[in-house]
Design brief:
28 helices, ZW10_C_2, Zw10_middle, ZW10_C, Centromere/kinetochore protein zw10-like protein
Length: 788
């Protein structure tokens, strides 16, 4: 407490002279001793005064310390008395043990022997204490094992006596006492269940005994449940016995009545109820609910059966056929049957226990809802917009049915405001209708494109889809040129128009799906038709023309759809409505089909002209006839193509296509003639004759009237030929050059006539060198042509 400080040194008490050190080894004088005595007395008084003040100030604290010290002293005295008594007792024993040891010189050895004996006694006392504790623990363990074993035996007697709930509860408590996992059933490989085995072997015996008792109880409860709940599928009956006899009179066990709820409660205690209800739910769904959903003629009857021998009462649920009712009334009747069945389950089978009802609902409801949706609701989704109102009645009935089941607890996590699976499906009927309609449209479109014959056709000479005109009354942009289209294309377009018309009368959500269905249906043509007719495109001119017409006719129809339907569609569809982006795709497809066919025809024409052998040596009859035959074969190919295409293709397109084919032939003829290095006079005459024959034969193929008659038709055919075939005038002029002299040829070049026909300077010079021999006049003409 800091009461007393360190005392003053001798120097402080004696020395008064500043700066003079005191020699502590030197003797003090009398005066110094008197001074020192006075100072010590003064210092002593000062210390006493400070001690008094400190004690007075901390009186209670000192009192507490002194009291504790007194208690400690008393304890020490008690220990000393005890120790003295022990020492006295040990002293007597020492005197008996040492006998007549000498008093002198043997004290040290006696004391050492005495200390060793004390240590030995202490060790023996500790060992005895530990042995006693171990015996007590062993006795406690044996008592615990005996109690557990007795409890197991009593548990088995309890469930045989019909006290199932008490037995199941005791068995669960025993499992906890044995330290077993809640899901352990006796598997020796389970480490958690065997964690005590190595330390205490009797636990193995208890665990085995518990497993045996558990298995007996499970089997006993299962047998009772199967006796209480019987599903007779052959008789279409579900019989539930609320009370069963339990016991065996032959074994000396009294027979008692066990109620069904007791069996279920015991199953719940031992943890087997969920599995039992899962099996039961599967059996009930397959044996009771599925037949009711599958056959509307089934009638559900609930009754009671009394056994004539045992007087047992049984609740009976049966189902049998009756007259069939269709449509909404039939579906409502199915729902009422299901409600009656579930009411029987709740009342007789699950004895109004909400927890068990929910457990069974977890098993049955998802499958039942899916079955109702698949077998009833999805099939009832209308195929026409006008039938949506009828489906709404079914949706209301379905919602009432679901709410009734939800109120009984059979629907897990039931929310009265949101409903469950059936209500959600019914509320989304527009989505299901739209998806079903879309699927139907695409399936029908695919059927039309796959199953039809692409050689059958009809003309598209009807007005194209609209009666409107522009402000000036001009409808030319809304008309398509007359051509033939296939039946699949026509039916596909009709399907597309019908789908868009339905979209105009639908809700926004349905309209959007129908709009996409129309687009997808028309796109199926691009995906299916080229593959379907791939083999015919290379061999049949008719299919090529028809497929080309289909593509361009579809493209023309797509251009008009926005004007026809966009204004009548819901606003959400108007924002995205477009078919114009598909137009280039179909036009490109049509062009590719026709151009591919034109390429093959050109190859056939070139192969026919190859037989002319370059029109060489036509002054000889044999070679002339060969060249003439080649031209005839070429005309057969072109005439056949024209005969097939003219009634199918649009007139303007047919002319363009034939123009490309004739251009290939004419270009080949011009090339063959200009390739000659030397042409005799007689050969010039024969070549000219062949070229004139080719021109006369080709000209009718290009006229609008097919060369029928004379006069204006021939002139019109020639004009059309010059317009459609760029090389036509060149071949005609080349034919004239073969019969002209040198000077007129030179004059024609200088006048620009040959240039306008497509001749180049080199071509004219080469032709002159081939026809005319080398003379000064030819040299002059060549120079004039070269310099002009």
């Amino acid at each position: 407490m800091g009461v007393l400080a360190a005392g003053p040194s001798l120097q402080e008490l004696v020395s008064f002279t500043p700066g003079v050190e005191l020699d502590e080894s030197a003797p003090l004088s009398a005066s110094d001793l008197h001074t020192l005595l006075d100072r010590i007395e003064s210092r002593s008084e000062e210390i006493k005064d400070r001690v008094h003040k400190t004690v007075t100030k901390n009186y209670r604290q000192f009192l507490s310390i002194i009291s504790g010290a007194n208690g400690t002293v008393a304890d020490v005295e008690a220990v000393a008395r005890d120790l003295k008594s022990i020492l006295d007792a040990l002293g007597e024993r020492r005197e008996e043990g040492v006998g007549g040891q000498r008093q002198d010189g043997g004290g040290t050895e006696a004391r050492l022997s005495f200390d060793l004996e004390i240590c030995q006694l202490a060790t023996d006392a500790e060992k005895l204490r530990r042995d006693g504790e171990e015996r007590e623990q062993a006795i406690a363990v044996v008592q615990a094992i005996a109690e557990l074993h007795e409890t197991l035996q009593s548990t088995e007697r309890e469930f045989l006596d019909g006290r199932l709930i008490e037995a199941s509860g005791a068995l669960c408590e025993l499992r906890e006492s044995l330290g077993l996992p809640a899901d352990w059933t006796g598997d020796r490989d389970d480490q958690k269940a065997r964690e005590h085995q190595e330390k205490i072997n009797p636990y193995t015996f208890l665990q085995d005994a518990w497993v045996i008792c558990y298995s007996k109880l499970i089997s006993f409860l299962e047998d009772l449940f199967l006796q209480s709940v019987v599903l007779d599928e052959s008789a279409c009956e579900l019989r539930v016995t609320p009370c069963l006899p339990c016991g065996d009179s032959d074994s000396g066990v009294d027979i008692v009545e066990v109620e069904l709820w007791t069996i279920l409660a015991a199953m719940d205690n031992v943890g087997m109820l969920n599995m039992r209800l899962a099996k039961l739910g599967d059996i009930l769904f397959k044996g009771v609910l599925e037949p009711i959903l599958h056959d509307m003629q089934i009638e559900v009857v609930i009754g009671e059966l009394v056994s004539s021998t045992s007087q047992q009462r049984k609740a009976v649920l049966s189902w049998r056929s009756h007259e069939y009712q269709s449509d909404i009334a039939g579906q409502k009747d199915v729902y009422s049957k299901l409600i009656k069945v579930f009411s029987f389950f709740r009342t007789n089978l699950l004895v109004e226990n909400d927890q068990w009802v929910q457990c069974l609902g977890h098993i049955i409801w998802p499958r039942l809802a899916e079955a109702i949706i698949t077998k009833q609701l999805r099939k009832s989704v209308p195929n026409d917009i006008a039938e949506l109102a009828v489906f709404q009645k079914l949706a209301n009935v379905t919602a009432e049915f679901e709410a009734c089941l939800g109120s009984t607890g059979l629907i897990p996590d039931w929310d009265e405001t949101k409903g469950d699976r059936l209500s959600k499906f019914s509320s989304d009927v527009e989505v299901h209708f739209a998806l079903k309609k879309k699927k139907h449209v695409l399936a029908k479109a695919r059927y039309l494109l796959v199953q039809n014959d692409y050689t059958k056709f009809e003309s598209n000479n009807e007005e194209i889809g609209t009666k409107d005109s522009d402000e000036n009354g001009d409808m030319s942009l809304l008309w398509a040129e007359k051509c033939a289209i296939t039946y699949p294309a026509k039916q596909l377009l009709e399907l597309m128009h019908k789908t868009l018309q339905d979209a105009c009368m639908s809700t926004p959500q349905i309209a959007m799906e129908l709009y996409h269905a129309a687009r997808d249906a028309i796109l199926l043509y691009r995906s299916i038709v080229p593959v379907m007719v791939a083999g015919q495109l290379d061999s049949v001119h008719q299919v090529t023309a028809l497929c080309h017409n289909d593509c361009f006719h579809i493209a023309h129809q797509l251009l008009l759809l926005k004007f026809q339907y966009c204004g009548a569609l819901p606003s959400n569809v108007q924002k995205v409505f477009t078919f114009v982006d598909l137009v280039p795709l179909f036009r490109r497809l049509g062009c590719d089909i026709l151009e591919g066919r034109l390429h093959l025809i050109k190859l056939n024409l070139m192969e026919a002209l190859n037989h002319a052998n370059g029109f060489q040596f036509t002054d000889q009859k044999k070679h002339f006839d060969t060249a003439n035959s080649a031209l005839h074969q070429m005309m057969i190919v072109l005439t056949r193509v024209l005969k097939i295409w003219q009634p199918l293709l649009a007139a303007s397109l047919c002319e363009l296509a034939m123009g490309k084919l004739v251009e290939a032939v004419v270009g080949r003829l011009v090339k063959e003639v200009l390739a000659f290095a030397d042409i005799s006079v007689e050969e010039c005459g024969k070549l000219r004759k062949l070229m004139l024959l080719a021109l006369e034969s080709l000209s009718p193929l290009l006229g609008p009237a097919s060369g029928e008659g004379d006069g204006p038709d021939v002139t019109q055919s020639r004009d059309a030929a010059e317009k459609l075939v760029p090389s036509w005038r060149k071949l005609a002029r080349l034919t004239d050059l073969l019969d002209m002299s040198l000077r007129p040829i030179t004059q024609s070049w200088e006048s620009g006539d040959l240039t306008s026909c497509g001749f180049s300077s080199d071509e004219v010079q080469k032709l002159i060198k081939a026809i005319f021999s080398d003379t000064p006049l030819r040299t002059e003409c060549l120079a004039r042509i070269s310099s002009h």
